[in-house]
Design a protein that fits this description.
The protein is mostly helical and 85 residues long. The protein has 3 helices and no strands. The longest helix is centred in the middle third of the chain and has 32 residues, at 35-66.
Length: 85
């Protein structure tokens, strides 16, 4: 049985936030939650989305630092040319 986090609890990780968000979406899609529970679930989902977006932003900043601020677009052309050489 999954443990429910209080509405203001910060998730332990990006993955746990995504799992909780997925569970909330599934519960809301069934249409069987009472109105108050649906509102609470929506608010929690909104908080989880904000948390996930912030985590992704942090990772993006880390990648930029690791790449010395020079993000390079992925190109399959370079790998195709190497295979032909």
């Amino acid at each position: 049985m999954s443990k429910k986090l209080p509405s203001n609890a910060t998730p332990n990780s990006f993955e746990s936030a995504m799992a909780e968000l997925s569970e909330l979406v599934t519960q809301m899609e069934t249409g069987q939650l009472p109105l108050e529970a649906s509102i609470t679930a929506y608010q929690r989902g909104s908080d989880l989305i904000k948390y996930c977006a912030a985590q992704l932003e942090k990772v993006e900043q880390q990648v930029k630092i690791l790449d010395a601020g020079m993000l390079k677009p992925f190109s399959t052309d370079a790998s195709n040319h190497e295979d032909q050489a």
